[in-house]
Amino acid sequence: MTTIAGLSARLIAPRLFPTRRWFASTPLWYYHAPRRVSGRRRDTLRVDARFFARVDPELVGACRLLLAAGLRTTPSCQGHFYPRPFFAAVWDDLVRERRAIRGDGLVVVDAESHERVVFRDPAYRVPWSSFTEFEAEAAGGQSRGYLGIVVPAEREALLAALDRAASSDDGAGDGARLRRERSLPADGTGALFALTVEAGTIAERRRAWARATERLSATLRAAGVRRAAGTTPSPAAVPSRGNPR
């Protein structure tokens, strides 16, 4: 297996998710590195049952819709309301995995290509000095949801339709909003849009993602988008996946 270094377990803002490459040892947490230094190719996204097994349940509908339309989604997260025992389990994993990373290496899986690689770094450090510090930061922002959408530059009608939808979208009272990420690259050519959700409860979050998906579907239809040739919906999905949760 290939050996890599330079990964981090630290939390980052959801709008930066698309700028990173993501790796996991367990389903609880992700390591990441900037795409430009991760050493991974950019064209390795594999959309199959394993891909959908890592997609958060409330994002599955939108992901299927976008992929079937010939678009690409970025690393994303529905938002969560995890209790303290979840963060305790993550902390135990981070401490345990630190020893492996500093020693013979930790086997991690590339979330896009499913390739197994060894993360080894004798100087690696857990980004938090204590569980208390980790829990305070991780729990504080966990309810924010994010789904990135990459639209090729040649899809002019769709770009215009999404721009119109974003300019008129104030959240519609449900905490979900579409916007264009003008300041960030879309990992190649084209434009990057973001669907975001801010919710106070699990029920509110579910409603927000359902309505956001409905509005996205309507925007695609208005732009004349049909399922891309040769694409088929993936089989039923899927428990959760996330980026740092």
DSSP strand content: 15-25%
**General shape:** globular
Amino- and carboxy-terminal Cα gap: 28 Å
Give the helix proportion (percent range): 25-40%
Task: Report the oligomer.
Answer: single chain
Structure report:
- This protein has about 240 residues and is of the alpha+beta class.
- Helices cover about 30% and strands about 20% of the residues.
- It has 6 helices and 9 strands.
- It has a 5-stranded mixed sheet with strand order 1-6-5-2-3. It has a 4-stranded antiparallel sheet with strand order 4-7-9-8.
- Helix 3 crosses helix 4.
- The C terminus is likely disordered.
Short description:
The protein has six helices and nine strands, in the order E-E-E-H-H-E-H-E-E-H-E-H-E-E-H.
List the defining traits of the structure above.
disordered C terminus, single chain, alpha+beta, 245 residues, 18% strand, four-stranded antiparallel sheet, globular, 6 helices, five-stranded mixed sheet
Layout of strands and helices, then pairs:
Elements: E1 3-4, E2 20-24, E3 31-34, H1 49-53, H2 60-68, E4 72-73, H3 84-102, E5 106-110, E6 116-119, H4 131-140, E7 144-151, H5 156-168, E8 176-180, E9 191-198, H6 202-222
Parallel strand pairs: 1-6
Antiparallel strand pairs: 2-3, 2-5, 4-7, 5-6, 7-9, 8-9
